[in-house]
Amino acid sequence: MDNKKQAETDKNSPFSSRPVVRLEAPVLPHYVRTLLDELELSIILLNENDRITYINQTVMDFLGLKEEQLQSLRESPFYLLGPLSHIYESYKQKKVPQKFEYIPVNLGNDRQKYISGFIRPVYKDDFFLGTLCTFLDITDLIQSKDFLIDYFLSLESTLARKTKNLVKQNTKLQQELKKHFADKKELSSSLKHMQKIFHRLNYGTCRFTPDGMLLEANRALSAMLGFSSPQELMDAVNLQGWEIFHDQELWQLTTEEIIKRKKIIRIEAQLNLKKKTALWAEISAFSVTTKRGQTVLDMIFSDISKRKENELLLYSKSTMDPLTGIPNRALWSDRLDQTVKKARRYSESFAVIYLDLDGFKEVNDRLGHEYGDKVLITVSRRLQKKIRESDTLARIGGDEFCILVNNIKKANLSRMARSIIDSLTRPIKVNKSQPQVGVSIGICLFDDPDLTSAEIMHRADKAMYMAKTRGGNRYMIHGNDASGQQDQPEPSKM
């Protein structure tokens, strides 16, 4: 730019009212130049006409220039620094300090570096002297670990505030880096320690993604499920489609609940094993959001198989008849209540068959209670062969049994009742005796949604009593006609 154009630019500048003093090339002592050349900080000093008055060796090395090439750069070095030239043009318009960060610079031969620094005007007694540009080569920091960026940003702030204390700040930066490298080493050691604890826990632990990928598992969990190592377990789940949870529907519901509620959820579930049958586990699960924003599920497993066995044993003792091994009165009442609710909800039908043995008291008194018990066991076994898997047989008293039959028609009830009578009237061989017992049967068909469990049992009991008063070894069906009046019980046709 010639003097005429420069004068025109200065005339239009907001700083044109200020006196301009020409900044001559500084005469610096040798030791000062040596110190500035040894700094990692690049320094460019321009006069009021944007001509270089000083450039240190760090800039020369950064640009890959030699001393004899410096003359060609007297006009402006910024065109070699890529985007920095645009920042400089913006600065010249208002002479406002410009800070720049992470500026990429292409130096030829596919070399790209990054710089950060500032451009600022220099004044003395309100006279504009020129421009100072300083920057650092941060290429190594950019290409290193992400956390070093924080230290570099701190360095930039320090450079902007305290340009007269650069050497001291550089030393401070080095100390900070050493300290944080030491912290990194300590953190790495802590992570290794946590990994050891993770794998030595007696509880099984693992981390899942919501779609079922197993990210991590400890040795306790892999051993619990029958695998030789956590890696073998992870390969089985992620590569072979092996499922840890025996009930996949429960797994899906639990996953949705964990993500929705965002708090610890505890459930009991069966887990699949590699070779054996499933085991019961108590599971504590909660969701975690990683630094990358990914939602994962952390789970802790405790083997409760023995506890479950004890619970099932206690449940069996409280709900099963100890002599015959079929449901007792308590379980029967619960099953009947549930069936009534279901039948009302879905407009279904079912029937209750009430059975009372004929002549059992005489057999029990004549041959003894031990023989009577064997008769009851034989009767229960014969009855089990006459019902379907969906039906329920229960012993509700000494020689009284009940059968809950789902989804059956009245005609089929008659055939079932006759088959039961034929089965139970056959002689029962115990030791050398072969006494016979009979059976009286009362049936109530659930065809009225207003009927309660107690009313159903009352009607079935009443029909059974009528069968017994008519000589036994027969069945009677109790029901309502369309008008709501009770029909006469229907006798069996033996």
Structure description:
The chain is α+β, with helices and mostly antiparallel strands and 494 residues long. It contains 16 helices and 16 strands. It has helices at residues 3-12, 30-38, 57-63, 84-94, 139-143, 148-161, 166-200, 219-224, 230-238, 248-261, 305-319, 329-346, 360-367, 369-384, 410-424, 453-469; strands at residues 41-47, 52-55, 98-106, 112-124, 127-137, 204-208, 214-217, 265-271, 279-289, 295-303, 350-358, 392-395, 400-406, 438-446, 474-478, 490-491. Helix 6 (148-161) runs antiparallel to helix 7 (166-200) and helix 13 (360-367) crosses helix 14 (369-384). The radius of gyration is 47 Å and the shape is rod-shaped. Mean pLDDT is 79; it is low at 1-23 and 480-494. Residues 348-480 form the GGDEF domain. One of its GO terms (molecular function) is catalytic activity.
Biggest sheet strand line-up: 12-13-11-14-15-16
Provide the residue-averaged pLDDT. 79
Number of domains: 3
Low-pLDDT ranges: 1-23, 480-494
Q: CATH topology of the largest domain, which one?
A: Beta-Lactamase
What Rg, in angstroms, do the CA atoms define? Answer: 47 Å
Helical content band: 40-55%
Largest sheet: 6 strands, mixed
Question: How many strand segments?
Answer: 16
